[in-house]
Amino acid sequence: MHAYGAHSIGKYGSDDRHGAAAGLVRNGHDGSRYREVRFAGTRSGFVCAWTHRSGGGVARIVPDNHADFIVSSTGDRWLVGPATTVDLPELPAGTLLHGARIHTAALRAVTGAHGPELRDTKIPIDDLLPSRIARILTESLTEGRFGEPLARTLWPDLRIDARVDTAVAALTDSAVSIETLANHLAVTPRHLRRLVETEAGLTPKTVQLIGRLQRAIRLVRGEPDMPPALVAAAAGYSDQAHFGRDARRLTGVTPAALGP
């Protein structure tokens, strides 16, 4: 597991269709600040560009089905791959991070790497991308000018597998079975599982697991008075205990600690 990931820093995370939800390290709660500029659609391969200034201490970073390119004021430049468990990096006060969040279905298309090789990893950007793209990406992130037009310029031939994009969206938002999805997409379940993992770096089961947790977090944050049992049911859990187990495994805290 990477020691210093930043997807979900200052927030619990977001998927490609829903906005970011404030998290345990909330804007202003500990002196930290998180800002993002979201991109339209999926054609660029990115969800948003973001900045985070740490207020110091330990950040709680939970899986959100995404990978990020990150440039730090300490001089580090890396890709943080999609995570499958909570990370608790200690960020010195004043550390400034600039990032670009990659669409779940676009991980292989953007990086050129086999998706599973990037899961729970941290890789220097210069070791992953062609030198020209790495240089322009890191410079533009540092200067706060990385946006959708530049992303399309750097990756002009980007192609996202439409089947994977459809599958990731459905898995993130619902309890649909892989068999139902495969039938809809006219492929075998085995082939669809392999496609999703290759392109997104995560198995369909993991994408669905994390998507369900993120739905629950949005409900807890948006409806703080909603009873945990109703949150669990609305998010798609079999019961409250199921929600509690997933919350502790993926965030390291109980559902009660996910609220405002």
TrEMBL record:
<dbReference type="InterPro" id="IPR050204">
    <property type="entry name" value="AraC_XylS_family_regulators"/>
</dbReference>
<dbReference type="Pfam" id="PF12833">
    <property type="entry name" value="HTH_18"/>
</dbReference>
<dbReference type="GO" id="GO:0003700">
    <property type="term" value="F:DNA-binding transcription factor activity"/>
</dbReference>
<dbReference type="InterPro" id="IPR018060">
    <property type="entry name" value="HTH_AraC"/>
</dbReference>
<feature type="domain" description="HTH araC/xylS-type">
    <location>
        <begin position="162"/>
        <end position="260"/>
    </location>
</feature>
<keyword id="KW-0238">DNA-binding</keyword>
<keyword id="KW-0805">Transcription regulation</keyword>
<protein>
    <submittedName>
        <fullName>Transcriptional regulator</fullName>
    </submittedName>
</protein>
<dbReference type="InterPro" id="IPR018062">
    <property type="entry name" value="HTH_AraC-typ_CS"/>
</dbReference>
<dbReference type="GO" id="GO:0043565">
    <property type="term" value="F:sequence-specific DNA binding"/>
</dbReference>
<keyword id="KW-0804">Transcription</keyword>
<dbReference type="InterPro" id="IPR009057">
    <property type="entry name" value="Homeodomain-like_sf"/>
</dbReference>
